[in-house]
Amino acid sequence: MSDTEASFFESQQWADVTPVPQDDGPNPLVPIAYSEEYSTAMGYLRALTQKNEISERALELTKMIIELSPSHYTVWYYRQTLLKALDKDMTEELEWNGEMAIEHLKSYQIWHHRQVVVDHLSGKLLASEGIDTSSSPAETEKKSRSPGNSVVIPPYSTLPTAFQEHLNTLVKKELDFIAEALREDSKNYHAWSYRQWVLRHFGHGPWWKNEFSYLEDLITVDVRNNSAWNQRFYIVSEGPEDLTEEVIEREIKILNKVKHPISEVKVFCETLIEQPRANFSPFVHSTLVDIYEEEAKRSRDEASTNAEALEKARASVTMLADKVDTIRAKYWNWRKSQLQLIAV
Amino acid sequence: MLPQPYTSMDTHRVTLGCFVLSALELLGVLDEVVSEKDRKDWIEWIYAQQRTGFVPATTANGKRTLPHPVEGIYGFAGGPFSGRPYFGEGEKAVAACEYNVYDSSHLTMTYVAIMTLVLLGDDLSRVDKESILQSMRRLQLPSGCFVPCVTDYQPDMRFVFCAAAVSHALNDWSGVDREAMLSYIRSCQGYDFGIAQCPHQESHGGSMFCAIAALGLLGGEALHDQKTILEQQQQQQQLGLDQAPLEAQLSRVGLLDKEATIKWALMRQTTGFQGRVNKPTDTCYSFWIGASLKTLGAFEHVDYDLNRGFLFETQHPAFGGFGKWVDTYPGKFLRVEHNVMHSYMGVAAMALMGEPGLQPLDPLLNISCRTRERLERETVFWKKE
Question: Which residue ranges are recorded for the region named Disordered (chain A) (predicted)?
Fold first, then answer.
């Protein structure tokens, strides 16, 4: 144990607490050689949680344990209970949480804690403005069943302008923080998941529109970043704007920007396989097999169209099985055998 | 005794135990390696982690009463970290402990504890089924998804799998709204027909396993897809045949487009498998995606030689065990659970390919086939009187 931790528990404020040791029985399964630091801190935590003590010292203790064991599944909840009961400064909490999240990018608990804190913060903001957060009967039903209920924010357009500004600031701060985490790991599942929650939770504000340019930047840096493409699909399909012809046109333009001219998928792929390098792309042939197979299925009444589609499908599937995607040769040969079944 | 870096797994200890014992079982040496005394002691230790809403037989007729039916979440915890006293005989422990939120169970630990009990040869007679089922009803959300416990309440596909596996082990699905579960699984299939942890998120090999295994355990038509139903409907329409009510049919299946989901999974093979599009190859996905393909009936399309070759490359020459990536080994991991977890996953992935010397693996419950058979033959919830 470091000197700091040793003196931490020696101080007068802990004198009334008797640590509770872990009782692991005579011959436990998978015992762990805990550090002395962890065992000591846990002894105090057990003593406090058994009484559900609400205090500043408990809050300090949860921090110490979280730093030693960030995926502990009850200590975070204790901390959340304490933060709310003691009415702590949530901005400070977010700063600490941010440092932890960057250090432990793959911890479910850390990211979820951030969501709980921001949710609570949004509720407090609403309350301070006297905005009604009472929810519909359906929401109440949902809340009674779900331990992870969240604050319901009224539609963005109905909020007072000054309050909209508050939300804009809070959302921007969160999105900036997530962007920082994504700079460390651009495909971090937790960060993307939390990002979708932030966009959604605060309603239809300007942040949805800003998300487009953010994603364009990410895609320019790495066109193969599938997480960014998934997010692009999310904001197009779930965002505040309707899926109009213009929106579709704009999305196709994005593809132009990443240097892949695209008109209609089939024509596009057919143009590609004319080019020597692209002819070796399994993705192009794989897409064409799917397209030709559908065509052949749909043209069961027209022998010539059917035969032509099948012939092209066979050509691509053979290319895949024999040359460009031999790792899946068994699969492609199976697909080839399936093609026989749709010949008229 | 596991070394200090495993401290971060303190609340999930039973999971580590399960990985180790299950790997030994797949290697066919569990009975040889584990002594009779350890076997019995470990069964007691696992039961000591059970949290139950019932007090044991106290009345004259031996009937059990339920003291706190509503507020508690019951099942198994991952270890004794909350400070509850250890009792050698499970029933006494139950009487001694009042419900405390910081001492509650966790759905994943419940699944893992039950599987480990079966691995160790227990008949599950001390598992408090009613408490678990009642808690699962409270852990399922209106979306059909589950949260694992009261203190850690982020819902995702992992807990849908755990709920399905626990229901199967208890041979009782009354703790689950199955229609809602199916609806949730469908809602996590995106434009590429892979499967995500939550709706709108990126398709992922781990969540695919959880969803596909849950569908396999649900049984019936759960592994069928809506695309096929719609195509059949269209054909019948053209032929002027009577059609079955469409909505009802569509609500009974768990997939949108089975062929496309199979294709997504097969496309993840690089040598071993990657977990997402354009991500590095990682040992554990040979299991997650391999098991999914097995359940979907398409595992024979996998290139075994390349997959096997990748797994062998990640094996550590001196310590044994599998790493996450090639050239990684215990000391090199960022997160220590990858040692034990990835070693188990490596063995499990080999077992899926019928590697000689390994026990066949059940791709739904993620235990050896013979352990599953024992569950369904010798444990109290399955045994025919």
Answer: 130-151
Question: For residues B346 and B306, what is the distance between their CA atoms, to the nearest angstrom?
Answer: 14
Residue A149 is predicted with a pLDDT of 63
pLDDT at A1 over 70: no
DSSP labels, B308-330? HHHHHHHB-TTT-SB-SSTT--G
- Name the minimum distance, in Å, from the CA of B311 to any CA of chain A: 16
Give the domain ranges of chain B. Answer: 1-139, 141-265, 268-353
How many Å apart are CA A147 and CA B361, to the nearest integer? 36
Of B10, B44, B104, the CB nearest to A25: B44
Clarify whether residues A33 and A126 are in a common domain: no
Average pLDDT of span B30-47: 96
- Considering chain B, what is the average pLDDT of its residues? 89
Rg of chain A on CA atoms, in Å: 28
**Where in the sequence is the domain holding A49, given as residue range(s)?**
1-88
Q: What's residue A263's pLDDT?
A: 55
Q: Decide which of B62 and A334 is more confident.
A: A334
Mutate to test the interface with A, among B157, B281, B301 (most CBs of A within 10 A): B301
Single-letter amino acid code for the residue at A153: I
Mean pLDDT over B284-303 rounds to 97
With respect to CATH, is domain B141-265 assigned 1.50.10.20?
A: yes
Chain A contact for B143 (CB, 8 A cutoff): no
Could you give the residue ranges of the DSSP H alpha helices within A13-107?
36-51, 56-68, 75-85, 90-103
For the domain B1-139, what is the CATH code? 1.50.10.20
